[in-house]
């Protein structure tokens, strides 16, 4: 394995993804859901057509719009998407649409993206002008060395063993919602339609973004090569020894259906996804694979994608979605809740990415000193007579690139010189794309410098077309030292050459191979802690098909985009053997037979379950297993207001003889939502499991229920919203299955919602004295009507109801916490004003703060005022007058009843005595 030297440690405290950016909304564009119920009104005495009725009523309402999509899938979704031309605001148009009779719901259309925009080997910046409409051939087949292994990703999941048994997904239809496909590719069947590998599909967008309804999903622009790459991961065929690469898809005998929802600029809308999902259902697919994301979290409620995903799930169609590439390489950064939509949807199977065990393609070059230096590249550089090397100081400096290209062009050596630059933690290959502002060099080489990041030790080769037509090669950190030493010793440019005469490749192991890749987004689902991703698969440095043309018809990409089709293909393999199993049954088979992987920063620990889900998917074990455990994942939470972590699963013995299973626990790390400065985001703090029995015997063909309790780690700070996880192991003589779990590392219902600080009076009420000083008292606070008050309270948890009431000082209410010594007796000054309302059946003068809806944790400064004031139920703000009062804080616990006192975290403050005159 390669080694790397830690020079320095970088740590960032990054904020989780921002939800709710208006930039993600397509202006004045909406999905309109129509009622599927019959109406008494008719058009021309015919049975009512819901779309015609809408158009008539919209015309009557003077709405000017164009139709983007019409959805007509009774039982699943009926409606349309439209763009409205109006001078009114987005909200007012949405409100107007909602008032039209027959309209059930109106949702904005969101922009969609490929989840790879920050990766060096992403296609997001590929030049849309690279279009090869007439290309029919691909690169000649290179020669493998003895250690070449293009099948390492398949071997990681046991897929190669299934192929050896003839299990290749035959009879299963896989729908792919993506950028389209170059089905001319011979590895993808070199054709389209029934009888071909790409058996069907549809295009909802043209190359230029124009909405189109075409039965042809062909793409020839490299910027939309993503779908061709995804299709290859699922179903490509090896091409033998004459052209291309001998690399195989996960389910090469499955029928593929491609639905194009991106143009050549990689733009599209959520309404396009909806149209594609409905089309896939109509085409009878078994699984929908979506390597895409939406930039904004969809609104709560019956949004279309949530609804249709659930409908497809009910119909037995798996919806498998990339978790996203929003994580970072830093072990100190906030990572949780970085997963994207629509992978968060309840009916979707979210997928994380694991680094390939081997980098697929590494060649060798001999330098002027006779040193043999490996380099990674999609194809070998062919220059046996020797190319010059010209090094620039800063690969991210556009002026240096321009000067180098201009100089070499003037010398007539641009086509015979490799331009090299140092790849550092701060200047990755993606950052060097500004090289091409004048003329693209023919050859580029990234020299990897010493790094502190384990993920950066391995080669990184941008996708074909990322640097235009330039040929990019990468040299590892250790080998770069040899090359640069030779370059300097020879006298640099003009005195040093690289002789490229090796056209055979090897596939060396990667430093982080088999571990979660750095970009793979973390879960869990916001607020309910459901585990996402649910599965992980090889997604880093994946070799697959690419649109045909002079760049060769293949490329290497990384991302959860690549892991998702691997899982989709795995699902197809299992479905082909168990066609009667439900989506949940197949998911449970895949999850319980997956293999948890270690954390790259500390291999003494597993990666957190909210990073990897069940772990590395293994369809071979899923198919061959004689044991089934369900469900395939567990959510650790409050079972009731009084119990936490009580879990049950079922073990079914499918063997022909009895089996004895032992039960054990393997803990995964603990995570805080916001790590402290220099605190690793995964910590060796573990929960435990209390089993009723350590082993169970299950007769042949029988099943048993196993109950146990999952206990969170001790002494956790619930105010930092921690999560924990692990795996329940089910072992027999010949099998090991595991059930992943995740959840809040505390009872969300029973924890403190109001932040209490023993070192300072929090919560607190304070008044400003006439001399300007602030007074805080936990006994009696004597104030007059001219004195200004303020108060501060911190909430540690999300809540849906928060209020502060003014109560009589002698109230009989029993709070959770007191802001005073309740053993001290007082002679109360009773107000002459009677309470005007009540809270939980106790008299109240009204509120000084009252909020509902989703309320975030944080500090609230109570409304400013003077004396003692309250808001009556009719909205009147008044002072109850001279007397003794207490402020009462109530925060609704998650899952609690707003009308039940015990379902709130409550605090009762000291006496506030309002008097006339000076204090």
From TrEMBL:
<dbReference type="GO" id="GO:0006508">
    <property type="term" value="P:proteolysis"/>
</dbReference>
<dbReference type="InterPro" id="IPR034187">
    <property type="entry name" value="Peptidases_S8_5"/>
</dbReference>
<feature type="active site" description="Charge relay system">
    <location>
        <position position="178"/>
    </location>
</feature>
<dbReference type="InterPro" id="IPR023828">
    <property type="entry name" value="Peptidase_S8_Ser-AS"/>
</dbReference>
<keyword id="KW-0378">Hydrolase</keyword>
<feature type="signal peptide">
    <location>
        <begin position="1"/>
        <end position="20"/>
    </location>
</feature>
<dbReference type="InterPro" id="IPR010435">
    <property type="entry name" value="C5a/SBT2-like_Fn3"/>
</dbReference>
<dbReference type="InterPro" id="IPR051048">
    <property type="entry name" value="Peptidase_S8/S53_subtilisin"/>
</dbReference>
<comment type="similarity">
    <text>Belongs to the peptidase S8 family.</text>
</comment>
<feature type="domain" description="C5a peptidase/Subtilisin-like protease SBT2-like Fn3-like">
    <location>
        <begin position="645"/>
        <end position="741"/>
    </location>
</feature>
<dbReference type="GO" id="GO:0016020">
    <property type="term" value="C:membrane"/>
</dbReference>
<keyword id="KW-0720">Serine protease</keyword>
<keyword id="KW-0645">Protease</keyword>
<dbReference type="Pfam" id="PF06280">
    <property type="entry name" value="fn3_5"/>
</dbReference>
<feature type="active site" description="Charge relay system">
    <location>
        <position position="226"/>
    </location>
</feature>
<dbReference type="InterPro" id="IPR036852">
    <property type="entry name" value="Peptidase_S8/S53_dom_sf"/>
</dbReference>
<feature type="domain" description="Peptidase S8/S53">
    <location>
        <begin position="169"/>
        <end position="594"/>
    </location>
</feature>
<dbReference type="InterPro" id="IPR023827">
    <property type="entry name" value="Peptidase_S8_Asp-AS"/>
</dbReference>
<protein>
    <submittedName>
        <fullName>Uncharacterized protein</fullName>
    </submittedName>
</protein>
<feature type="active site" description="Charge relay system">
    <location>
        <position position="561"/>
    </location>
</feature>
<dbReference type="GO" id="GO:0004252">
    <property type="term" value="F:serine-type endopeptidase activity"/>
</dbReference>
<dbReference type="InterPro" id="IPR015500">
    <property type="entry name" value="Peptidase_S8_subtilisin-rel"/>
</dbReference>
<keyword id="KW-0732">Signal</keyword>
<dbReference type="Pfam" id="PF00082">
    <property type="entry name" value="Peptidase_S8"/>
</dbReference>
<dbReference type="InterPro" id="IPR000209">
    <property type="entry name" value="Peptidase_S8/S53_dom"/>
</dbReference>
<dbReference type="InterPro" id="IPR022398">
    <property type="entry name" value="Peptidase_S8_His-AS"/>
</dbReference>
């Amino acid at each position: 394995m390669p080694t790397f030297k830690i020079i320095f440690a970088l740590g960032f405290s990054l904020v989780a993804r921002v939800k709710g950016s208006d930039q993600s909304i397509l202006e004045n564009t909406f999905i309109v859901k129509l009622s599927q119920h019959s109406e008494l009104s008719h058009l021309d005495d015919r049975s009512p057509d819901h779309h015609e009725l809408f158009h008539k009523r919209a015309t009557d309402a003077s709405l000017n719009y164009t139709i983007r999509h019409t959805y007509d899938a009774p039982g699943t979704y009926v409606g349309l998407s439209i763009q409205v031309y109006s001078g009114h605001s987005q909200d007012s148009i949405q409100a107007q649409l909602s008032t039209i009779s027959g309209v059930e719901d109106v949702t904005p259309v969101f922009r969609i993206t490929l989840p790879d925009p920050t990766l060096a080997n992403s296609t997001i910046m590929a030049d849309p002008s690279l279009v090869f409409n007439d290309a029919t051939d691909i690169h000649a087949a290179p020669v493998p060395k003895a250690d070449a292994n293009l099948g390492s990703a398949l071997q990681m999941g046991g897929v190669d063993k299934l192929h050896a048994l003839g299990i290749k997904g035959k009879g299963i239809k896989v729908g792919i919602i993506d950028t389209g496909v170059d089905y001319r590719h011979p590895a993808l069947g070199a054709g389209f339609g029934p009888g071909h590998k790409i058996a069907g599909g549809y295009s909802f967008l043209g190359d230029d973004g124009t909405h189109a309804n075409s039965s042809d999903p062909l793409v020839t622009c490299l910027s939309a090569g993503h779908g061709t790459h995804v299709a290859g991961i699922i179903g490509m065929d090896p091409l033998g020894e004459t052209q291309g690469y001998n690399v195989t898809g996960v389910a090469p005998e499955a029928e593929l259906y491609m639905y194009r929802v991106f143009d050549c600029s990689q733009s599209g809308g959520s309404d396009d996804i909806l149209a594609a999902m409905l089309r896939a259902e109509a085409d009878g697919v078994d699984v929908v694979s979506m390597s895409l994301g939406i930039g904004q979290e969809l609104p709560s409620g019956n949004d279309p994608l949530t609804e249709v995903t659930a409908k497809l799930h009910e119909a037995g169609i798996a919806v498998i979605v990339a978790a996203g590439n929003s994580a970072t390489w830093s072990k100190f950064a906030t990572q949780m809740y970085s997963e994207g939509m629509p992978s968060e949807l309840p009916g979707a199977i979210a997928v994380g990415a694991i680094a390939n065990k081997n980098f697929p393609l590494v060649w060798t070059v001999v330098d002027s000193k006779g040193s043999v230096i490996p380099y990674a590249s999609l194809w070998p550089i062919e220059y046996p007579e020797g190319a010059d090397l010209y090094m620039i100081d800063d690969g991210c400096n556009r002026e240096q690139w321009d000067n180098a290209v201009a100089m070499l062009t003037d010398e007539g050596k641009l086509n015979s010189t490799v331009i090299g630059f140092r790849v550092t933690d701060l200047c990755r290959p993606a950052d060097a794309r500004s090289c091409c502002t004048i003329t693209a060099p023919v050859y580029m080489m990234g020299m990897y410098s010493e790094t502190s990041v384990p993920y950066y030790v391995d080669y990184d080769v941008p996708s074909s077309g990322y640097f235009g037509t330039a040929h990019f090669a990468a040299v590892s950190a250790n080998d770069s030292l040899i090359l640069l030493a030779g370059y300097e010793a020879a006298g640099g440019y003009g005195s040093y050459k690289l002789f490229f005469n090796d056209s055979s490749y090897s596939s060396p192991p990667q430093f982080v191979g088999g571990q979660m890749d750095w970009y793979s987004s973390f879960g869990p689902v916001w607020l309910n802690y459901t585990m996402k991703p649910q599965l992980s698969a090889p997604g880093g440095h994946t070799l697959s098909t690419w649109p045909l043309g002079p760049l060769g018809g293949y490329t290497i990409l990384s991302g959860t985009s690549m892991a998702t089709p691997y899982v989709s293909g795995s699902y197809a393999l299992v479905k082909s053997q168990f066609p009667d199993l439900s989506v949940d049954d197949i998911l449970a088979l895949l999850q319980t037979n997956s293999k948890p992987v270690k954390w790259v920063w500390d291999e003494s620990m597993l990666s957190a379950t909210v990073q990897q889900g069940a772990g590395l998917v293994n369809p071979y074990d899923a198919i061959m297993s004689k044991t089934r455990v369900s469900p395939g994942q567990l959510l650790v939470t409050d079972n009731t207001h009084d119990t936490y972590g009580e879990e049950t699963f079922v073990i079914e013995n499918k063997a022909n003889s009895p089996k004895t299973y032992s039960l054990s626990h393997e803990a995964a790390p603990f995570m805080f939502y916001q790590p402290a400065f220099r605190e690793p985001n995964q910590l060796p703090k573990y929960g435990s499991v209390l089993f009723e029995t350590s082993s169970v015997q299950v007769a042949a063909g029988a099943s048993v229920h196993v109950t146990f309790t999952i206990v969170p780690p001790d002494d956790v700070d619930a105010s930092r919203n921690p999560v924990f996880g692990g795996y329940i192991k089910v072992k027999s003589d010949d099998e090991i299955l595991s059930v992943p779990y995740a959840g809040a590392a505390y009872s969300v219902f029973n924890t403190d919602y109001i932040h209490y600080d023993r070192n300072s009076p929090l919560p607190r009420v304070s008044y400003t004295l006439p001399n300007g000083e602030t007074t805080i008292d936990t006994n009696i606070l004597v104030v007059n009507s001219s004195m200004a008050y303020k108060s501060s309270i911190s909430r540690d948890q999300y809540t849906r109801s928060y209020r502060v009431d003014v109560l009589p000082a002698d109230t009989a209410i029993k709070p959770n916490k007191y802001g005073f010594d309740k053993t001290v007796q007082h002679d109360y000054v009773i107000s002459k004003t009677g309470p005007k309302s009540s809270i939980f059946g106790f008299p109240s003068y009204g509120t000084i703060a009252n909020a509902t809806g989703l309320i975030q944790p944080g500090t609230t400064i109570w409304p400013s005022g003077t004396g003692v004031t309250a808001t009556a139920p009719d909205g009147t703000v008044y002072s109850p007058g001279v007397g003794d009062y207490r402020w009462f804080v109530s925060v609704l616990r998650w899952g609690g009843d707003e009308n039940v006192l015990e379902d709130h975290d409550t605090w009762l403050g000291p006496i506030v005595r309002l008097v006339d005159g000076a204090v």
